UniProtKB/TrEMBL annotation:
Assembly mode: Homodimer.
Catalytic activity: (S)-ureidoglycolate = urea + glyoxylate
Keywords for the protein's UniProt record, in alphabetical order: Lyase, Purine metabolism
Record's protein name: Ureidoglycolate lyase
GO molecular-function terms, A-Z: ureidoglycolate hydrolase activity; ureidoglycolate lyase activity
Top-level taxon: Bacteria
Listed GO biological process terms: allantoin catabolic process; purine nucleobase metabolic process
Taxonomy of the source species: Bacteria, Bacillati, Bacillota, Clostridia, Lachnospirales
Organism name: Hominiventricola filiformis
Alphabetized SUPFAM superfamilies for the sequence: RmlC-like cupins
Amino acid sequence: MKTIKVKKLTKEAFAPYGEVLTIEGREAGGNPASHLWYPQVVVIDNPTSINLMKVIPHEFVLKDFEAHDHTTENLLAMDGDLIVGMAPAGDLKAENVEAFYIPAGFGISLKPSVWHAVPFAVGKEVMSACIFKNNTSHDDIYFASIPEELGLTM
């Protein structure tokens, strides 16, 4: 099985797919004695749903992907680290697949039509939040697979 190396999540490396959701480099508001507030990290101009997903550890192998044409998908790693495989919008090709390591407390905002796999939990079950236009998982979801499985290496 061919393998690809999981990449560190940086704004530059992730830019072709969307945005990194982090407080790094953002100015905080709020009351420093009690909280730091980072407003509008992502703005969604549609009726929106917040979906919770418990990611169960499973083999780091990529084959099946999905995409959404009419919304961004925002994924937050809440209490553990995740790895997400993805490929640019358009024809899904194995040679274009990349994978990113998303540390707990970080997230990603995928551009519409970017192919992505179900996340992989690193070391333990991980609670995550997936935020997108309401009903996306029912009326704006497309599936495709690459011909051969791709393994992931750290």
